[in-house]
Amino acid sequence: MPDSESHSVQIFDSLPYYDKELELYPQLKQKVEQELARQPKPPSTLHPRVPPPFELFANNPLLKAELERVEAHQPFPPLDTVRYQLPAPISNPAAEGEWAAALNNARAQLEHQRIRQTNLTLLQNYGSNAWRIQNYLLEETAKNIEKTLEDLTQLTTDVNRERKNTQTKLGSQLTSLETRWTELISGILQIEMANVALDAEVDRLNKREAEMAEML
């Protein structure tokens, strides 16, 4: 069969909206389950057309580690406050190197506070607009996803409704054909029984004719 015709052929292995034998006959359902248990297990590998799993944050080890932490339900690590402290030299009297290290730490802390102040100023001036734009983009994305979900749900409903209508129509045709087949079989049986009765009647008449011929 050509490919153009093969795509239009519909094969129905079962009509679940019409076939009720498994519900009407529990012993038949048990036999089906036993037969299915003897069948080989389905392959554990996915279909070749299924895309491979997508690895999130493959190029960002920090976000990848954070995602693994969240998936493992591990608590968030405590905030490191040591780097925000200004420890003085421990020894007394302190050496020049210890005072130099403490001074460098103080300068680093001062630079860190200056950068924080700059970032807070930038956030105060531009953060609200950036937040609004981000919220707008997220809302549009959420609307698109919801619309896609609605379309897929409606498509699924339409497909199921079409399957049910088609199977109900085919079931009615099968019921009509089965009834017609039963009537034809019954008619054939009646004809065969009538033929047997006619053969018996013919044999009886032949015997009667032979007896009458002998009497003459």
Automatic annotation (TrEMBL):
GO cellular component, one term: precatalytic spliceosome
Keyword tags: Coiled coil, mRNA processing, mRNA splicing, Nucleus, Spliceosome
BP GO annotations: mRNA processing; RNA splicing
Positions of region (Disordered): 33-52
Short name of any one Pfam family annotated for the protein: BCAS2
Family: Belongs to the SPF27 family.
Protein name as catalogued: Breast carcinoma amplified sequence 2
Natural source organism: Marasmius oreades
